[in-house]
Design brief:
Blueprint: H1 5-9, H2 16-19, H3 23-35, E1 37-38, H4 40-47, H5 55-63, E2 67-75, E3 78-85, H6 98-124, H7 148-169
Antiparallel strand pairs: 1-3, 2-3
Length: 195
Amino acid sequence: MPSPRAASRGPVRGDPAEALVSPVRLELVESLQARRRATVAELAAELDRSPHSLYHHVRRLLACGLLREEGRRKAGRREEAVFALAAERIALARPLSARGSRAAARSVAAVLRGAARNFRRGLEEGRIGRVGRRGEAFLCSRRGRLTAEGVRRLLGFVERIERLLARESGRRGARPYLFTAALAPTGGGRRRRSR
């Protein structure tokens, strides 16, 4: 199987939102968020997949600029590429085209489906003992109104959670967790009451 390295040399091709529609590519991004850097073999072992099944996905993430090759590491008699995310946070260009908006919506749906799968598996495999504010898993959906300042503050809380996850991921005895958050305006102002 050819190395995905070749794709990293050329110009950035492809839409990051399109690339993230794939659940496998989302898993790769999540793994690299937790690990910081890894070879395809390490990612395959963590995701319980064969390395050959990941090369296409790694090339796609390289081509659209979401991944970068950070170096090479000796693995037996050969060298393996070490990959990292190109940026800590993935942001989509604005304004989005109609195609970009559809791809972004599909990416969000894939992220939320992945979170639901992870939650369901945790319950089925007995990894989640209690659900709720004092349990091992938590689910919250809240509708409310926010000012621009409120949105900035809320995003600041999410950044603090991301930093906590990054810091804790390297600690001995830390268990893997998935944190997923989505925030979107829900529509216009107040509804008029019919008289």
